[in-house]
């Protein structure tokens, strides 16, 4: 059966099948999008795979999260007497999984939990009364279940799953890969016989989950491929049987591709409860989709030497932090200290974080970076507790904007445009080299406010102070072409992506001001509070020329809103378009 057979109205269920000697899979399936995180956005459903090995001893691998607790335990009870279960092996742990574990442990009080040391620490803190039932394992430790099932454990820490643990069973040659080699797709087919049809899902899953940690993925691959497995049994999607070597090769290739991107961003974050980490993933996605390599650094794990090395090598850096007890966690404070003392001031910066009520961490990081004269590549993202799907989209857009700014900066510093532009008319190229300040002109028509993005503005006179704007008729020019018409010229600040609200392609509809902080100028038009400066102007003359109107206006009043920023400017390659 192929991917096309998916029907989204099928109810959740648990598919149970034998996949090897003494071994069954329990696939908790949903045919709909499980969560709002980016990795589920292809909406092909997913499966949460759990495995049960019943030899002389019995081990259950990776029970699913709480969305499936009830149906999963009902199915499991058909195949296992809970009081005979010896071990539960955990590839990683999160609050979701803990919910199922709590129910299981209550019904199987004899069970020992097998996990990596970081998982053990997390569980011991969350459930102190489980302490005696938790057994932390190290790389290459083994656990003998009898009948040849001598499980060996492979620790695979990554920034996103510092506690990652894979398990290999030599009796079946199945490697339980947890977050590696998965795909978010739900089908009846258990194995990957139609693996070519899985390519897009696999790649998307890799891009979302592993591309920002390509370096650690390569280290993990070295450990995993040494085992000579015949099957990969991942946490999500089909079991890998027919495309094992191809898929392994793909992981190597995709990791290499990621690392060899020309531009690279260090994404430094910490996240005690996962919210800041979700934002980090959204931003990473925006960067990756725009061809920029992301080096994720989970500051709770990374040592200062590693942070220094990555920060020195990157083209830009982004710092994410929760606020805990009125501060950023110590590890973030350390990382910020390293950044401030190491990163060249030309590097583009960004700040984000989740908070509960006061959110000091993000404010402090932002102001320290600004004080040190770093330029911000997107407007700082502050989110109360968990992000909404809209905020995640904003994070992706912020990552994309950051990538675009990096690319532009890189091009400006690299004098090799002649070849790529050879086909563009030379005059247009030359005209395109004229640059202007990015501005939003705001006008008022009764109760309606309009905003026009333009960079065709220049000072025209000293006395009186006057400006000239070139504007097309269709850009609401009627509101600012007659002598005496009033408008405000908002001069935008570099690093703040205000322009997106006013671009012709904006998805924000007719009211670009809805999401912006504004106030009303004396002349009735709107001042954007996040502009660098604004000018209140009165039109004096206009000339119709070519496809534009040239408007001369006198400046009645003006103010700089932020002293420490620089003007956003528009660099173009050609004078034939914006
Ligand atoms: C122990 C503790 C202390 C906290 N202190 C603050 C605080 O001082 N100010 C604040 O705005 N939020 C505070 N919060 C709320 C967290 O910032 C919020 O839960 C945030 O989503 C955590 O982000 P994370 O999931 O990335 O760790 C606190 C939360 C906890 C659990």
UniProtKB/TrEMBL annotation:
Q: Does the keyword 4Fe-4S apply?
A: no
Required cofactor names? Fe cation
Presence of keyword Oxidoreductase: yes
Domain Flavodoxin-like: residue ranges? 265-403
PROSITE patterns attached to this UniProt entry: FLAVODOXIN (PS00201), FLAVODOXIN_LIKE (PS50902)
What are the GO MF terms of this UniProt record? electron transfer activity; FMN binding; oxidoreductase activity, acting on the CH-NH group of donors, NAD or NADP as acceptor
Q: From which residue to which does any coiled coil extend?
A: none
Highest taxon in the source lineage:
Bacteria
The signal peptide stretch is none
| Alphabetized SUPFAM superfamilies for the sequence | Flavoproteins (SSF52218), FMN-binding split barrel (SSF50475), Metallo-hydrolase/oxidoreductase (SSF56281)
Q: Which CDD domains match?
A: flavodiiron_proteins_MBL-fold (cd07709)
InterPro entries xrefs: Flavin_Rdtase-like_dom, Flavodoxin/NO_synth, Flavodoxin_CS, Flavoprotein-like_sf, Metallo-B-lactamas, NADH_oxidoreductase_modular, ODP_dom, RibonucZ/Hydroxyglut_hydro
- Keywords of this entry: Electron transport, Oxidoreductase, Transport
Q: What does this protein do?
A: Mediates electron transfer from NADH to oxygen, reducing it to water. This modular protein has 3 redox cofactors, in other organisms the same activity requires 2 or 3 proteins.
Protein family per UniProt:
In the N-terminal section; belongs to the zinc metallo-hydrolase group 3 family.
Its protein name is Diflavin flavoprotein
From which organism does this entry originate? Amazonocrinis nigriterrae CENA67
